[in-house]
Each structure stands twice: as structure tokens, then as C-alpha cells.
Write a structure and sequence with these properties.
Elements (H helix, E strand, L loop, with lengths): L9 H8 L4 H7 L4 H8 L1 H12 L5 E9 L5 E7 L2 E4 L14 E7 L2 E6 L4 E6 L4 E4 L16 E8 L4 E8 L8 E6 L4 E5 L7 E2 L7 E3 L2 E7 L3 E7 L4 E6 L13 E9 L2 E9 L3 E10 L6 E12 L5 E6 L3 E5 L4 E6 L4 E2 L3 E2 L3 H4 L4 E7 L4 E10 L6
InterPro entries: F-box-assoc_dom_typ1, F-box-assoc_interact_dom, F-box-like_dom_sf, F-box_dom, Gal_Oxase/kelch_b-propeller, SCF_F-box_component
Protein name: F-box/kelch-repeat protein
């Protein structure tokens, strides 16, 4: 019985702690000075992040709503089947009314952009840490068209730093001005970079960050993907794969989305007319102009009287669609079955391993614009 007082080796303690959720670790900082020092250390946060990135069961979902009115923004946390609204998820100071853009997610961090004030902040929803980003040296003109500026967020693996990239031009005939914010210096700097095509913020194709590169949809004479390498700070253009349209499909609407599939970045191409929907999933290999495309699977024609839009793929199996009624519709491409629609606030009840965090604006007029998968982390900002 005297052996019950033995001490666990420090490396064993670290190994055990690195497997625990962030909420538990934040409580455990009070256990002892030793545990406090371990948990707040940079090396431990990196180990904890690496463990989370390797575990697909630790995914969290950020559900982004878009409002059609001018209501003030608020945030909601959905945990264990209950929605909690309140100031505990507010972002500090009162913001002007206007659209919120979730411009990117990386290592459990989100970059939030308030377009009315052209203000940026970084947010770790797991630790509730918030950092206001210093003002850009390129001010955003009042009432500027949203199509004329874009924002991206990601990680530079060479410098181990987080970056925000901002593209802006005054009209369609001007070149882009490009600025990069670096977290370690908390400052913006202009860079000389050529944007190869017209970058759009079309709701039919939301941008994303993946493995050191940020991706936007581009369109002018043709649809392309515009990418920005966070390490070398250069833009490139990716041509889309050739998709043969079925002769029975009249493409009245097109919705596409970036998604993760079996460890690769992919795109769901979705075409529809008034009564039918047809989709293909393609994945990318390589970077920039050297990207090659592989067709993973085809979802045949199925009846749909509602305007379906793909949101993401869960666990490389379930494609989540949304419709005109703002319902979530899961489609299992393995069994080729579509499940009954349900409200998006029921998502966690269906996928219990996914904690859902809503970024939304007030009722009654809103749509589900995106579902973003992310990992909780201890990364400090």
C-alpha cells in the first residue's frame, strides 16, 4: 500500500496530458505549478496540436450563417444538444453592424473580418482567446464592392508563424494591392505580388486554407482556382479538371465547395437544374500550376425540387448539403442513400463526435453558408 504514493515520470505525464481536450487542460493548470508550466509551454501546445491533427475523432465543426438583414452579429455555442447565446462568446468591444467573414481556419485558430470597419481579429474558440489585429496600411474605402477585396489566413511552416493576406483594388480595372500581416510582429507590410486572375467571394465557392496554401475561387473568362503560398508569399493559378456534363443535365445552377477527403484537398462540383442534381468529387495533388486532379467518385442524378448546395464531406463518407429551407441533408456516397433533411442545429445530435460552434447573425432571415471542420488547440495568439 505504501507504493501508492509513487510519482509518475514527467514524460508519461506529458504524454497523458497531450491526449486530453483543451477544456480539461485549462482546468488542470490549477493542479500544480509543474502542470501549469507544462500546459502553457510552446512545446506542449505543439505536441497537443499534433495529436489532435492525427486524430479524426477530434474534429469540431464551425457552422457559419449568413443573414439577409442588417441585424447585429452574435455568436452561439452548441454543446451537448443545447444552444447557449451570450456575451461569453462575444469579441470584446462592440462592433459596427455589418457582415462577418470567417476568412480562414488553421491549427484551431480563426481569422474573423468585420467588413464594415475593416477590422480583423484572431480567435481561438477552445481557449476563448481573442487578439485584435492592428489596422492595415491599405484602408478599405466606404461602400467598396465585396468582390474587390479578399482575405486569407494560414500558417508559414518556414518561420512557424501565422499570416493574414489581404487583396484589394479600387475598381475592376486596377491591379490588386496586397498586404501581409504577421502574428509575431503584429504588423502589416505591403508585398509585390501579381494576382493571376480575378478573385471572387462568390457564396457558391467559399475560400479555404490547406497545408500552407490559401485557395480562392477565380473567374473572368473561365473558372479557375487562385492560390497563395504562405511561405514564399506568391500567387498561382490552378486550372480546373475537365468535367463532361451529362447531356440530360441543363446546368441552370452550379455550386462547388472545397473539402478534405482522405487527407487531400478536394472540390465537390455540383450541377443542377429545376428537378435534378449531379455531383463529382475531385482531389488535388501537388501545388500551384503543378497540381494534378483525380476524380474520386461520381454521384449520379437524383431528384431534388430544392436548390441543393454542398457544404463539406464528413469522415470522407457523408456529404452534407443544404437546401432552400436551410436544412442539412446528409448523403452517404458509399451506400448511395440520401437521409431525411434536418435543421442544422441538430447536426451534433447526428454526429456526436463533432462539437458544433455556430457563427451566426440574428434571425429570421439567414442561410447556412458554410460548415468548417477544425481542431481544438492550445495555440496562443
Amino acid at each position: 500500500m505504501n507504493n501508492l504514493g509513487y510519482k509518475i515520470r514527467g514524460d508519461v505525464v506529458i504524454e497523458i496530458l497531450s491526449r486530453l481536450p483543451v477544456k480539461t487542460l485549462l482546468r488542470f493548470k490549477c493542479v500544480s505549478k509543474t502542470w501549469f508550466t507544462i500546459i502553457i509551454s510552446h512545446s506542449f501546445s505543439q505536441k497537443h496540436l499534433n495529436m489532435a491533427l492525427a486524430d479524426s475523432n477530434k474534429d469540431r465543426l464551425l457552422i457559419v450563417h449568413e443573414s439577409f438583414n442588417s441585424c447585429e452579429s452574435f455568436f452561439a455555442l452548441f454543446v451537448n444538444g443545447e444552444i447557449t447565446l451570450g456575451t461569453n462568446l462575444s469579441f470584446g468591444k462592440k462592433r459596427s453592424r455589418g457582415d462577418i467573414r470567417v476568412t480562414g481556419s488553421c491549427h484551431g485558430l480563426f481569422c474573423i473580418h468585420y467588413d464594415r470597419d475593416d477590422e480583423f481579429l484572431l480567435w481561438n474558440p477552445a481557449t476563448r482567446e481573442i487578439k485584435d489585429i492592428s489596422n492595415s496600411s491599405i484602408p478599405l474605402p466606404r461602400n467598396v464592392d465585396a468582390e474587390l477585396y479578399q482575405v486569407g489566413f494560414g500558417f508559414d511552416s518556414n518561420t512557424r508563424d501565422y499570416k493574414v493576406v489581404k487583396l484589394m483594388r479600387l475598381d475592376e480595372n486596377c491591379d490588386y494591392h496586397v498586404e501581409v500581416y504577421t502574428l509575431s510582429t503584429n504588423s502589416w507590410r505591403k508585398i509585390e505580388a501579381t494576382v493571376p486572375d480575378y478573385v471572387t467571394s462568390s457564396p457558391s465557392m467559399l475560400p479555404t486554407y490547406w497545408n500552407g496554401t490559401y485557395y480562392w475561387w477565380g473567374e473572368r473568362d473561365r473558372d479557375v482556382i487562385i492560390c497563395f503560398d504562405m511561405c514564399i508569399e506568391q500567387f498561382d493559378m490552378i486550372l480546373l479538371p475537365t468535367i463532361e456534363v451529362l447531356p440530360t443535365v441543363v446546368r441552370r445552377f452550379e455550386y462547388h465547395c472545397f473539402t478534405e477527403y482522405n487527407g487531400s484537398l478536394g472540390v465537390i462540383f455540383c450541377f443542377m437544374n429545376c428537378s435534378k442534381t449531379w455531383c463529382e468529387l475531385w482531389t488535388m495533388k501537388g501545388k500551384g500550376a503543378e497540381v494534378s486532379w483525380t476524380k474520386q467518385y461520381f454521384i449520379g442524378l437524383f431528384e431534388s425540387r430544392l436548390n441543393l448546395r454542398p457544404l463539406m464531406i464528413l469522415k470522407s463518407k457523408i456529404i452534407l448539403f443544404t437546401n432552400d429551407k436551410n436544412e442539412i441533408i446528409p448523403y452517404d456516397h458509399v451506400t448511395k442513400t440520401m437521409q431525411a433533411p434536418f435543421p442544422d442545429d441538430s447536426l451534433m445530435k447526428m454526429f456526436k463526435s463533432h462539437e458544433c460552434l455556430f457563427v451566426t447573425r440574428c434571425q429570421p432571415l439567414w442561410i447556412t453558408r458554410a460548415i468548417i471542420s477544425y481542431k481544438e488547440s492550445l495555440v496562443r495568439i
